[in-house]
Amino acid sequence: MRSGHFAEVSPICPVCRHKGVSSALELAHVSRSAGDQIFEGILHCTECSAEYPIIDGIPILVNDVAAYLRTNHSQIVQRRTLTHPLRTLIGDALGPDAAQEQLRRRSSTYCRDHFGMWDPEESEGRAPPGSVLRLLEAALALVDTVPAGPILDLGCSVGATTMRLAERFPDRLVLGLDMSFDFLRTAMSVLDTGAVCYERRRVGMVYDERRFPVPVKAPDQVDFWVCDVAAIPLPTAMASLVVSLNLLDSLHSPWGHLVEASRMLGAQSTLLLSSPYDWAPSATYIENWLGGHSQRGPGRGASEPVVRQMLQATTPYHPDGLTITAEKLQHLWQVWVHERSTVAYDVHVLAARPQPTNSPS
Ligand SMILES: C[S@@+](CC[C@H](N)C(=O)[O-])C[C@H]1O[C@@H](n2cnc3c(N)ncnc32)[C@H](O)[C@@H]1O
């Protein structure tokens, strides 16, 4: 985390925010830093004194830090210096059901898509890497102008879209927010070193180590923070552009996400949203799916009309709702599972803006 970025966006305390109060955070302790980059330290709330760690340059700004640390402890303290043969041995010992293995698979999928185009040994054939970057470009083509101000990349995973946004919008701060410490540590390491190292799944529990340089054009504009997109610890209307790619159907409350993402928008800002609407009960209770059920109802179970309707609805932040300014019904987003498997989605992409309010000021 860069102290300049912290000062620019003035994050608020997640614990106080949960209680409906907006309290400032301050840097209480720095134990490892270089220039304005803080690698290890502690933020604390000026009102309730809640503490938030900064680990490997990543601040953990969630409502229940203790629960987060308990759940993610093994990721956070995991050694990254073990060589590939040792990691494969440990992987085999832990077995396919281990949380570590699930993480390895997800990391393989996202690292390969976000960075694989820079890998000199990557085959372009089936599922060419960079699918999410092509999706981001298709989404950006739906926006005419982006006012001044910070940009948010919600659910950024390993961060190539965040870095691309910084390249596309010179001099803007771009914050990549995600709940996965492991993904963000990869993102931060690419930012700091200009190279990626990940394990690409070949088959079953067999992985190949991939290590190669990644060009990062505007590293000083980027930061990665652990935050829950359901309760973003940032002031209302602070973002010029909010990007949410393929996140909606991964959340407990997709509706809560739409409200929270729209809370971040200023009057001239845009929300870019894409989703494959691949609803699954493991991520979202069926009651919270936006479409995907009730096929005998008026929308015949389609998700698109429900999402449009929800974006256009009144929220406490935008009484007249958002206007959908442009839309693409289908765009290919294709990701790698292993050498003999890829998943191809046709995602729905849309751009939405706060409706100018008609009420007298
Ligand atoms: C399907 S992935 C999409 C990643 C990336 N946007 C892309 O398209 O390649 C969803 C991402 O959202 C993150 N995520 C899930 N729930 C979240 C939450 N409540 N707050 C922040 N990030 C979340 C996951 O860790 C994951 O990185």
Describe the model.
The protein has 361 residues and is an alpha/beta fold. The protein has two domains: 1-62, no CATH class; 78-354, 3-Layer(aba) Sandwich (Rossmann fold), CATH 3.40.50.150. The chain contains ten helices and 13 strands. The strands form three sheets. The protein has a seven-stranded mixed beta sheet. Helix 9 links the parallel strand 10 and strand 11 (265-275). The longest helix is centred in the N-terminal third of the chain and has 17 residues, at 99-115. The structure holds S-adenosylmethionine. Residues 110, 132, 155-157, 177-180, 183, 228-230, 245-247, 250-251 line the site of S-adenosylmethionine.
Which tags fit this structure?
361 residues; Rossmann fold; 2 domains; seven-stranded mixed β-sheet; four-stranded antiparallel β-sheet; globular
Structural category:
alpha/beta
Task: Count the E strands.
Answer: 13
Mean pLDDT: 96
Numbering strands along the chain, what is their spatial order in the largest sheet? 9-6-5-10-11-13-12
> Percent of residues in helical segments?
25-40%
| CATH T-level fold name of the largest domain | Rossmann fold
Task: List strands and helices in order, with pairings.
Layout: H1 3-9, H2 14-18, E1 25-34, E2 37-45, E3 51-55, E4 58-59, H3 65-77, H4 84-94, H5 99-115, H6 131-140, E5 151-154, H7 160-168, E6 174-178, H8 181-193, E7 195-203, E8 206-213, E9 222-226, E10 239-245, H9 254-263, E11 265-275, H10 304-312, E12 322-338, E13 341-354
Parallel strand pairs: 5-6, 5-10, 6-9, 10-11
Antiparallel strand pairs: 1-2, 2-3, 3-4, 7-8, 11-13, 12-13
The protein binds S-adenosylmethionine (SAM).
Residues 110, 132, 155-157, 177-180, 183, 228-230, 245-247, 250-251 line the site of S-adenosylmethionine (SAM).
